[in-house]
Amino acid sequence: MKQKLILLSLFMTIVSTVLAQNATVTTHWPLNKSIKDLAVGSTAYNSATASTTTCEGTDVKQMLETSVTFGSKLAFQATITPQSYATKEVTGLQLLRFKVQGAADGSNDYGMILQIKPNTTDLTYVPTKVGVSVASWVKNSSPAFEVLLLKLNAAGEVTQTYELGKVNSHADIDANYDDASFDVPATATASNDAWQVVVRMAQGYANGKNLAMGNVTLTGTATVGGSVQLSTFTATVVPEGAGTVSPAQTSVVTGDNVSCTATPNIGYAFEGWYINNVQVGTDNPHLFTINSDTQAEARFTKLDEATLTYGTDMPAMGSVSISDKGDNGKYNAGTVLTLTAKANKGHYFVRWEDGNGNVLSTSAQYTFTLNTDMTIKAVFAMVDNYRADLIAFPGAEGYGKYTTGGRMTDNRGAKVYYVTRTDDCSDDALVEGTLRWALRTGDDTPRTILFRTCGTIYLTSKLSVNHPNITIAGQTAPGGGICIAGYQMKLTQPNIIIRHIRFRAGDLAATSMSPLDVENVHHIVLDHCSFSWSMEENLTLYDTDSTTMQWCISAEGLYYSKNVKGERSYAMQWGGEHGTMHHCLVSSCISRSPRFNGVRNQAKPLEHDLHVDNEFANNVIFNWGNHNSIHGGENASADESSYDRVYMINNYYRPGPATYSGAAAKRYFVSASGDNINLVGEWYLSDNKFELSSRWAPNGSIWSDTELQKVNNDNYYGFTSDYASRAMNFWSVSPSQTLADKALLHELPYALSGMTYETADEAYRQVTQKAGASLPRYDEVDERLLAEAAGTRQPQYHGSTFESEKKPGTMITPAAGIINSPADITLSRYDEFYAKDEATGQTIKTQMWPWMGMEEGEQLMQDTDQDGMPDEYEKSAGLNPNDASDGYKLTESGYSNLEIFLNGVADGTIDLKPYKMTGIRTPQKDSNEGAIYNLRGQRLLHPHKGINILNGRKYLAEDR
């Protein structure tokens, strides 16, 4: 039989009286508790006697604080958790049960005992009221229990027994019985002996019955009386106003101690304690022994005062903070202070000066002793040629366009880190030359990450980028460039630019994750990047501010892979307080194409988006699978200042095979989210376009050119009438005029990022030619994706048939373009390397990522000073190929010499071919040498120290 847990509350309120009228007392009372004979079991119970547990409970001094006078009613409470002895597992609910020895009168079967005894003979007391509270009692199946009050003498013997009451589970108690109160008989006499409140089996129920208890809360009342000698302690401050003392006055039992603390006010120092003009101590706090009424003085000494004036005459360049603001700039003479100067972006700290212009320090953090009045100012300077209005690079648009990335912004300069190998390492054992090392080593000085290797960098664990101010430039990588696969790369710091990098996660990792995660940061630019093959979203970018995603591809999210949530195929979750996505291709994903993140509650800045302006313009959406593939944008924040505004402008929608099979019945530019009308965001739709006469347009009238032209002409077409062919939809709220008035914007509320919009048709032409990681050259995956979106090639690859986990019993065959694994795709050439399949634990040779190696005759650039620019280019530009510092120096344009080179390569104005290295040995296509070469042509002894990629394979030690 299952027993439910009983919560028993014993109430004792202390009522105090004493001969001294209105006197106070601070006597400490210990609260002891005893738990006897506890056991856990199902049918058999341990008959061994368990030891009694006694411990100090709540400090009952709280009952008799100095503000409480004798004669008032007081209360205390302590929570006791029973301990179990001889425990063992039971079937079903595990309960604490009190051992029963079978005596008919239950005299040896105490359940819970609360014992209270004063630690002084000066006080007498007697409990006056006891109560029991029971919760989750099983009616008609548990035995009755009774409450007793016992009086014990000094030897612990019971001298008086009072039966206060009995609770019968069969008649008097239900499942939530509370607060049975029992008055103590008037015949109970006060003494200074101990009293025990006992809850036990009721007589006649002990034999073979079980009483279950859990956490027991003990509180109570009693009457306290007696006679004590009290003395008053008083402490005063000399001179008046120099400080404070605590306590200033109190009454205590004569002979007790009082601890008193003196606190000086600003401008004073504590001197010492005096009684009758005699110093009794300089310690603070001081312990006074009170044998009679006592008058003490806390004496203070007046200190000299000094005033500090600090700051800067250049507030646009930087700011100053101080360790202690004092009293409106006034301090005690001799105070030690620290000033810290912080330069604004594009500036740097120069020196500290006093009021006469004398240099005090050139360290940004200046610690000094203030003895007299002083004036200290921070002097800043602007970085030569720095421009605050300079965009990240020519062609950067949107809210993130002012991101500086690895550009020099102060006098620290900037650094270049070369990635020279494609293997990975761990965070706690960084290996020079790996991508993880390049992103995590060093300090926060701006850095540019460049590559002297090519191919797939397979991450074996999550890579958190723990530094800000970074540019990752893939456009100058050798061969076919860089792909990051395996585990996730996560941006955790602000001001980062990533260009011409592929992120293709794959399905070998045990955990589903986006290949790139961008959260709780600001100023991010993703330019010409490619995202695909994720078991979760291909990209997560939200809870951010000032971001741009431009000329990127997000495609072929894995549908039925290893995600514990079942089928996915998600393009991205995207948002941000001010975010722009433009000229991107979103292709061959069932849903989240994208999912606009929306607004949620937040407890700290950037924890969640709160004031959202999302600019979604000039993008191409191809081969989406669900009618509500693009959704989100809700406003679920309780903050009245919050808003979520999504601006969908001049986007081009082209159906594909997945659209044909999955979105035939409904067709929307967006299906906005929000559980009710109060939780929806605001939407501005303008000149978005469905392709007319599309090859893969589903059958049905809503896909006819006539209907499509209507929604293309009016992106709110049919909304208020809830027309089946309406242009947009709200997922959980029926369209109506009321909803339209609240949620649909017919003009921009203010200027957005300032980008220039193309028509949807022109955006389609541009995106299908230029999106994705095009440099150093397209890989065959992106070439295929662009061709499919452009209509010059039809989607071909798809995953195998599977049983839906979301709809058991339903078999799903993915449409063309929707894949379950990268293995569903046939590559003409592939990058071959070893990686761990975490589902099986086996290390396998994988051929699922496209080949990006060096073609015959391609060689590395020579960069002697490692500043990121090839030697011959530096010579042609009038720079010194042996001086690394000229790379990060800013030119009159505002860009550094390195940025000019990287930007020129990206926009095609600089050709890399004249700057290639010469004389590097490259293995021949059919070479069967048992050696490994890195991209410098150096022969290596161990695998994964570097690779030489040629004609679709890596030369690995395992191949020999």
TrEMBL record:
Protein name (record): Bacterial repeat domain-containing protein
Pfam family, one: Flg_new_2
Segments forming domain Bacterial repeat: 234-302, 318-381
Keywords: Glycoprotein, Metal-binding, Signal
Signal peptide boundaries: 1-20
Region entry Disordered, spans: 793-815
Gene3D superfamilies per the UniProt record, alphabetical: Single-stranded right-handed beta-helix, Pectin lyase-like (2.160.20.10)
Compositional bias annotation for Polar residues: 793-802
